[in-house]
Amino acid sequence: RYMEASVLAAARTPEAAMLFYQPLYNNRTVDNPVCERTWAAEMTYRQTGERFEWQATLFAAMTLDGMETRRYYDDMSAVYCDMATTGIGLLRAGVELGASLRLSYRWRLSLAASAGRYRYIRDPRVTVLSDVDNTAVDTGSVSHMGGCTIGGAPQLTAAAEGSWFGPKGWGAGVSMGYAGIRYVEPMPLRRTDRIASQAGITPEAFEAFTHQQRLPDAVTLDASLFKTFYFERSRLTVSLLLHNLLGDSDVIYNGYESLRVRRVTAGDATFYTPHATRYTYAWPRSFYLTVSYRF
Q: Residue 240: its pLDDT value, please?
């Protein structure tokens, strides 16, 4: 039995690419940059045995004063703009579990699961400058991000894999994975008063700008087959990997909100709605053949 605890306190300067509004041809830097601060703690318990071993980990990490810059076309001002988001605060906390069971001499079962909460805990500030002459389009506007979920990270996962190690170097495996409680990556610009309040003049439009979409749960099924050839002091392994055996073509891998705003004209009235969310999808049924040689 093993128990391990770790703590972290760190501060780092922003990356050079994030300090400049437009590093290709503009020397304008973000005003008053500060170090990004991180506090984290982790505790792990592990128990090993001849046929069964398992591990559990509790973790929490808080990051404050994060910063990022983006370049985009601003539909509200009709000019290309450079945007800086400062004062980003994130909290990630959860538990991870893993277990390995040797069912017999040739069979092994591996299990893993995690549950967590990953969210924005502060409202960052957004500054937008015209890319033409550095004039201010929006300065220090509050983005109501507090409570939004960090995108790209499922808050509930589970995986299971069965492996068979046969004679003469043969082996095979089948695995299944699950990812749930996922959200698209939120954009701070959409939640500022300039966009959400001025463009979202109706309750429905305001909700469209501030609502964070949840992605559907995803399930994958994979398989593998390999053969190892042993020599005196080296070995050659040929592996066939089969991904997405179910052939699902509509499994969303990730998504992010667009920075663009759609202008809708009806008679003399003009309305604004956010552009559609951008999605990336998991690969369809795929086959990979790999060959490795170790000596």
A: 96
